[in-house]
Amino acid sequence: MTPHDALPADLAAGAFAARVMTPEGPSVFAILGGAAFDMTPAFGTCSAWLNAEDPVGAIRARGVPAVLDPGAALANAHHAARDPARPWLLAPVDLQAIKAAGVTYVRSMLERVIEERCRGDATQAEAVRAEVRAIIGDDLRNLVPGSAEAMRVKAALVAKGWWSQYLEVGIGTDAEIFTKAPVMSAVGPGAKVGVHPMSGWSNPEPEAVMVVNARGRIVGATLGNDVNLRDVEGRSALLLGRAKDNNASCALGPMIRLFDSGFTLGDVRAAEIALAIRGRDGFALEESGAVGAISRDPADLVGQMIGAHHQYPDGAVLFLGTPFSPTADRGAPGMGFTHREGDVVRISSPRLGALENETDRTDECPPWTFGIGALMASLARRGYPR
Q: Three-state DSSP class for 97?
């Protein structure tokens, strides 16, 4: 596919937010009706713009018409073909907190239980997977978390000695909400994504990502790759930070699709997310899953993330959890999937576009050096709000 094919299918019909690295520094752009507008002079940051009462209306009222070819900027984002004299797409968020919800789909819940019972040993996964499904089944889609029926299932599993912390957050009252990565650390389309070399069992997690303003309103959506070390988390859930937060282990993009009359939360609920992996060893995998198969509604998850008990004055993004984790064997039968260096991972949904990245060791990915201080200094140097 060409970079233009990786853009949303109806780009000219929607409203989008993008962060673009220009020769002058990182800038915030809007795409509305296929036309580009520079939002940096008015707001400075994506966070400030999306905290406006009406982000789409602000494009018309305060955006500066600009020249930007999104397809060319996406092509120039590729780590191996980047021309620093030309614009390229960055992760589309800046000061927003980067949060994630875990164990929100039946398939991912079962895989987490399997990781736990394997203690991170991938060689046991297939046998444990069969055992888990024989006891739990894999059709819990109509089980409402926290409901009386969910509590009856919990009681039955406790009696069998099969209760799990992952089942607790999967069908219990409280969702798992955690910090995926530090502010400003996410990489964008075309960048390398990092897998820590200590891990022998890792995978991408393709997810829809909610973009939330400081008042808790969902203002748009994007795509994310929540790169995960399955063996590390499987050893202990207390190693979640070690499994999730590593150099270049969080990818977002290609742009944020803003909610308007033509694209709403209902469209996110109805979306399909596709995953394609191509390895240098000839390995190929394609899977897809429905966002709507989620066990907790996106609005409920956002409500558990932000409110009277948790505030995010610069807004936040929330990974909704993955509809599936790849399990196809790569190598010996029963060993399942794990990343290898050079894997090209493509996460896509027609109205959000495609997020494509290549995997590498975390210590071989470019180190994260441009943080909040660097962004503030860049905006000050250019005379923009900050």
A: strand
Q: What is the DSSP string of 34-83?
A: TEEEE-HHHHSSHHHHHTSS-HHHHHHHHPEEE---HHHHHHTT-TTS--
Q: How far apart, in whole angstroms, are the C-alpha atoms of residue 189 and residue 70?
A: 12
The amino acid occupying position 351 is R
DSSP 293-341: G-SS-HHHHHHHHSSSS---TT-EEEE---S-------SSTT------T
- Looking at residue 138, its amino acid is D
- Please report how the helices 125-136 and 106-118 are oriented relative to each other, as an axis angle in degrees rounded to 10: 130
386 residues of the chain, pLDDT tens digit each = 567 789 999 999 999 999 999 999 999 999 999 999 999 999 999 999 999 999 999 999 999 999 999 999 999 999 999 999 999 999 999 999 999 998 887 666 777 777 777 876 878 878 877 876 776 665 556 678 888 887 877 777 777 777 778 778 887 888 999 999 999 999 999 999 999 999 999 999 999 999 999 999 999 999 999 999 989 988 888 999 999 999 999 999 999 999 999 999 999 999 999 999 999 999 999 999 999 988 889 999 999 999 999 999 999 999 999 988 788 888 777 778 999 999 999 999 999 999 999 999 999 999 999 999 999 999 999 999 98
CA angle 338, 343, 344 (to 5 degrees): 130
What the block records as the tokens of 2 is 């060409």
Q: Which of 353, 222, 256 has the alpha carbon at shortest distance from 55?
A: 256
Task: Please state the pTM of the whole predicted model.
Answer: 0.91
- In sequence order, what are the beta bridge partners of 206? 225
Q: Which residues pair with 31 in a beta bridge?
A: 16, 36
